[in-house]
Amino acid sequence: MHFQHVDDIWRDFPELSAGALFIDGISGGVSIGDHVRHFQAIANDRLGSGSESDLPEIQAWRRTFAKMGLKPTQYRSASEALLRRFRKEGDLPSIHPLIDLCNAASLAFAIPIAVFDLAQVAGHLHVCRAFGNESYLTFSGETENPEPAEVVFTDAEGRAHARRWTNRQSGLSAIRPETTRALIVAEALHETAREDIARLLTALSPAIEQSWGARKSMAMLDRSSPRFDFSV
C-alpha cells in the first residue's frame, strides 16, 4: 500500500510539506492522558490571549482554501476547527485514544492531522483533484460526491476519504475501537512547514510507541519524494 500527493498538487501548491506515519498494532484500551495534557499546554501557550487565526500555520491554510475557491471562514482546516473549539471550551471531547492524541498534537502544532483506518482504504491513498464521481460517506451515514476539481483523499476504488483537503474526513475510514492499522498524515504550507512537520512527527512517534508499542514507520514527503510505501 502507498500514500502520495499527485504531481498536480505539488505543482499547484509548491509550498506544501507533508509527513506520514503508519502504525500497526493499535487498540482502544490505552491511557494517553499525560501526552494529551502536554500537547494542550503547548496549545494554550501558543494561543495566549489571541486567536487561532493569528497563527501563521492557520493563515497559510486560509490562503490555500481561498486559492481553492472556498470561503476560509465557512470551510476551515481541521486544525483551525480544533483550535477554535479548544479556545472556546478549554478541552476537546474524547473519541478514541489515537484520535485524542493526534487532535492534541494538532492543537500544539496548529497543523491538520488526518488519521485513517487502513482496513477501509483500498489499495492506496492519494491526495488529488476529484473527478466528481467519487463516493464520500458522511459521519451521519449519507453519501456525497465531491465537486469536480475539489482536493480530496481517494483510494483505488474511487472512494473519497476526505473532502476539501483538510476540511472534513469520511466516516468510512474513521478510527474505531476495532481499528488495528492506521495512517496518520500531517500537512502544512507556512514558511517553516517542513521543519514543523518534522518536529510534529518527532513528538508524536514516541508518544505512540510508549502508548501502544506498535510497529510503525514514517516519512517526510516533498515534490522530489512524494510517495510513502508501507507494508500492511
What's this, in brief?
This protein is an alpha+beta fold and 232 residues long. Helix content is 34%, strand content 24%.
In total, the number of strands is: 12
From the spread of the alpha carbons, the general shape counts as globular
Number of helices: 6
Q: Give the SSE string.
A: EHEHHHHEEEEEEEEHEE
Largest sheet: 6 strands, mixed
Span from first to last CA?
Answer: 7 Å
| Unreliable sequence segments | none
| Secondary structure: helix percent | 25-40%
Strand content: 15-25%
> Which structural category fits the helices and strands?
alpha+beta
Arrangement of strands in the largest sheet: 9-8-7-4-1-12
Mean pLDDT: 97
- Rg over C-alpha atoms, rounded to the nearest angstrom: 16 Å
Descriptive notes:
The protein is an alpha+beta fold and 232 residues long. Helix content is 34%, strand content 24%. It has six helices and twelve strands. It has helices spanning 7-12, 33-47, 56-67, 78-89, 97-109, 193-212; strands spanning 2-5, 17-24, 113-117, 124-129, 136-137, 143-144, 151-154, 160-163, 168-169, 181-188, 215-221, 227-229. The strands form three sheets. Strands 9-8-7-4-1-12 form a six-stranded mixed sheet. Strand 5 and strand 6 form a beta hairpin. Helix 2 packs parallel to helix 5 and helix 5 runs antiparallel to helix 6. The longest helix has 20 residues, at 193-212. The chain is globular, with a radius of gyration of 16 Å. It starts with a strand and ends with a strand.
